[in-house]
Amino acid sequence: MKPPVVRARPADPATLRPAFHSPGSRVGGKERRGSGAWLPAKAAAFGPGATRRPRLGGGRGGQRLGGSSAMGSRSSHAARIPDVDSLRRETGFSQASLLRLYHRFHALDRTGKGYLSRMDLQQIGALAVNPLGERIIDSFFPDGSLRLDFPGFVRVLAHFRPVDEEEDGNRDPKEPEPLNSRMNKLRFAFQLYDLDRDGKISRHEMLQVLRLMVGVQVTEEQLESIADRTVQEADEDGDGAVSFLEFAKALEKMNIEQKMSIRILK
Amino acid sequence: WARGLVPFGPWNWCLLLATLQCCEASSELNRSTDSSAQHELHVRFAAASSQPAETISVFTLDYDYVQIPYEVTLWILLASLAKIGFHLNRRLPGLMPESCLLILVGALVGAVIFGTDHKSPPVMDSSVYFLYLLPPIVLESGYFMPTRPFFENLGSVLWWAGLGALLNAFGIGLSLYLVCQVPAFGLGDISLLQNLLFGSLISAVDPVAVLAVFEEARVNEQLYMMIFGEALLNDGISVVLYNILIAFTKMHKYEDIEPVDILAGCARFIIVGCGGVFFGVIFGFISAFITRFTQNISAIEPLIVFMFSYLSYLVAETLYLSGILAITACAVTMKKYVEENVSQTSYTTIKYFMKMLSSISETLIFIFMGVSTIGKNHEWNWAFICFTLVFCQIWRAISVFALFYVSNQFRTFPFSIKDQCVIFYSGVRGAGSFSLAFLLPLSLFPRKKLFVTATLVVIYFTVFIQGITVGPLVRYLDVRKTNKKESINEELHTRLMDHLKAGVEDVCGQWSHYQVRDKFKKFDHKYLRKILIRKNLPKSSLVSLYKKLEMKQAIEMVESGVLSSTAFSAPHQAQRTQETKRLSPEDVQSMRDILTRNMYQVRQRTLSYNKYNLQPQTSEKQAKEILIRRRNTFRESMKKGHSLPQGKPAGTKNIRYLSFPYSNPLPAGRDMKVAEFTDHDGSDSELPPITFNTHSPTESIQERRWTPEVIPMKSLHRAGMPPHFGYGRNVSQEEHLGRSRRAILRPKPLFHAVDEEFESQEESEEEAAAFGSLLSAELRPGADGNLSHSPLLQRK
């Protein structure tokens, strides 16, 4: 029998139901409450009890999924996330966010195999019509791997966590740069261009991206000259390609922190 | 504006003046005839009988007979021509909201009428406004409301729109009453009730004009919905309050108001509101049910929609309930089902007709506003008008910051101070306030002129000053780079990051579910849809239609040469010529223009809404284009027998669009997928799960006949496909290649679209598949209506 896939049901921003979700400040029960009811989709369709909201189960370890979900083999408990603490430290996500991502991860994993494949991501409709959809999916599968496990998933998304100013100030300089730093955000964008991973955006790579992003009205000649120009503009050492430093320099005036942050990923 | 109008100006003026001359003449004529034939009932006969009775007149002029429709038609034409001019100008629409234009046209007409001493026809009176002019406006905004974000933010919207209107009304009313107590201002005769009434009508904001700015600035969805919800509900609440207060004022004239009456008034407020919504929902369901049976007489479908909405309004008004809320609720309820039932042409008709009716109503109101601006019926009181203006702003600020402070406590993603500032600033008053002020009964309000003047001042102030400056404000607060001197790099990378962000957001999904919505969805699938939605054609025809469409488009693409220019150009690197010549600034500029104009837009979750126009659906076209291009890249790489040069088969993974088997999936596979299909995420409009299935050979062979191309396994494996089709999981890449070559020869792995039937049961219509919406755009009659509302490909 297939394990039921747990559906994420985080707090709605608009409900008047109290959502005490302040990232990072609370653990365990409180956050569970804030993130709403998590129900196994199938179970919800069966018993009336299954649609009940889960009760708060006494702090960190003792939470159980509420209701009579006979098939709740994969409960929504945060502690089920492997290495939750180290993941939190590494990515900076709050526990509630991790939990949401965990549910999203399993919702995307339709067949319940425990990892995500490209197919799973390709099923996302909006991504299919995103001109960069394939590149974005590629960026979830670094080094040509075929499987995306949960830590990997979270690590990629951590690039898009909004930059927290106070957190930034308190950071220990000896620690490695957090994943959501400006440089890491830039690097993430950079690797969308840099297909062959040689640390440079060649003219050809630039052209490919342009081709993806520009409508069919523009002729190939125009595109090529634009690609030439783009490389030329950023290329400082004259090697006909844009290195990461040149890339960062070209964008130095831009508010990358804002551009590459997703509000919900706290 | 003036520039825009120039081409039409002279012509219009001539027409208008001619008209006015005519009516001068005719009224002269009438005056003389009235004396001679006083007992004639109809003016028309009077005009005719002014001639000697024994001869038939060869030429008669009877302007009075046609005066009202004639002038109304001219007004609307004038306004339409002005709009054309307005939009011909490239810069103007970005500069000011369209309501500015309408008001200016109204003022122009008013000036002409005033200048020629003509009396404008009595188009606007209480019954005309409430029975004919108001319903279309409300219906339109209810019908075009983006349903999903509205209900996701329902709590905040109700809290803000409902309480905000009340707080504003009472706040402004009470503070003005205090001002009136100052003897120096000469306002002592305005009672508390009259002040409250004025407060209720002046608090009816109409921020739709601001929405256009928001859309351009891409503010977040919540903010957008707050403004939209306010526009939607505010009218209803203000009108209910207005009517209750009018009733109180009437009562007050004859007897004293006791506390019981006030309580009764409060209870009435609630009953009027809820009752209206109740009737609206009922009528919405009835009309949805009826459209289920109209497949053979589709011409009647728009009629059903309009008549039932209007009926809900009338029924509610008969029972002294809020017709506005009824018609809004009716539109919201039926929209979802009606759209699935009616044919594509009817759907288009409904959309355009709705826009047309509401824009007629609004034009008339604005023109009336202009007409009554210029005239002698004003009473100017500095104190009252200035304090009105100030209190409007103060109370809006108070209500915004107080109400959002409270609601932020309950929200996961609170509204920032910036958001609140924008909401505060978007308090633009519009046609609603003016109409309510204009319709005040003079017998109860001796200072009506003062009220009208004050309302006009507030409207002019908010529409012109706030309406024009809100755009720059939003941009300023948004800290968006408006610097036009972006380099091409920045331009390109910015867009790339936007796409990237949108894509990653889609991967994360929308995090705003809650139980009520899910329960409703279940209920909807279980009962409502079964009752209200037409039984659909067999799904296989849908599939075949999709195939047809796909072929057609592929052929078109090839013919237009797109394919050859995009898909064959991959190995161009070899021919690369080193051009190092410096480009002139003009060239760079033109490149930037090309990029700005032709780069794909980032998908928007919120539907774009424009009160005055239906937007052409660029996003839909764009989605189609992207899908087709991807498929083509894939095909090309397939033909060449290798994937893209970089070893990263960027285009090869979208095989799921390529082939669409004809037969239904195996029942077992289907059940399994029902079990798997758990993503109820409303936001990201999942593709219907098209998964690989292992099939019995017979069926596969049969399918093969329908599928022009068999998918090469190689590219699948290269693309990192999971071993869904029975291969071992840890087979090495080489083995894969070898096997897949063989696999080409056998028709085993094929693709399946999951049957739409179950899709429509499991998913709400908002989650319709991307490709489904593409389909439904063109193949609506046959398509499952379920596919029509994808938020992704906004059709509105």
Automatic annotation (TrEMBL), chain A:
It comes from Moschus moschiferus (Siberian musk deer). It is found in: Cell membrane; Cytoplasm; Nucleus. Residues 1-14 have a biased composition (Low complexity). The gene is CHP2. One of its GO terms (cellular component) is nucleolus. Residues 56-65 have a biased composition (Gly residues). Residues 1-79 are annotated as: Disordered. InterPro entries: Calcineurin_B_homologous, EF-hand-dom_pair, EF_Hand_1_Ca_BS, EF_hand_dom. GO terms for molecular function: calcium ion binding. This is Calcineurin like EF-hand protein 2. Residues 181-216, 222-257 form the EF-hand domain. It comes from the Eukaryota. Belongs to the calcineurin regulatory subunit family. CHP subfamily. One of its GO terms (biological process) is positive regulation of calcineurin-NFAT signaling cascade. Its main location: membrane. Keywords: Calcium, Cell membrane, Cytoplasm, Lipoprotein, Membrane, Metal-binding, Myristate, Nucleus, Phosphoprotein, Protein transport, Repeat, Transport.
From TrEMBL, chain B:
The keyword Transport applies. Pfam families: Na_H_Exchanger (PF00999), NEXCaM_BD (PF16644). It comes from the Eukaryota. Residues 769-779 have a biased composition (Low complexity). The chain crosses the membrane at residues 95-116, 128-145, 157-180, 192-214, 226-248, 269-290, 310-332, 352-374, 380-406, 422-444, 450-474. The keyword Transport applies. GO terms for molecular function: potassium:proton antiporter activity; sodium:proton antiporter activity. Keywords: Antiport, Cell membrane, Ion transport, Membrane, Signal, Sodium, Sodium transport, Transmembrane, Transmembrane helix, Transport. It is found in: Apical cell membrane. Residues 566-671 form the Sodium/hydrogen exchanger regulatory region domain. GO terms for biological process: gastric acid secretion; glandular epithelial cell development; regulation of intracellular pH; sodium ion import across plasma membrane; transepithelial ammonium transport. Residues 679-702, 756-796 are annotated as: Disordered. Residues 1-25 form the signal peptide. Residues 76-475 form the Cation/H+ exchanger transmembrane domain. Residues 756-768 have a biased composition (Acidic residues). It is a multi-pass membrane protein. Residues 691-700, 787-796 have a biased composition (Polar residues). GO terms for cellular component: apical plasma membrane. Gene3D superfamilies: 6.10.140.1330, 6.10.250.1040, 6.10.250.2020. Belongs to the monovalent cation:proton antiporter 1 (CPA1) transporter (TC 2.A.36) family. This is Sodium/hydrogen exchanger. The gene is SLC9A4.
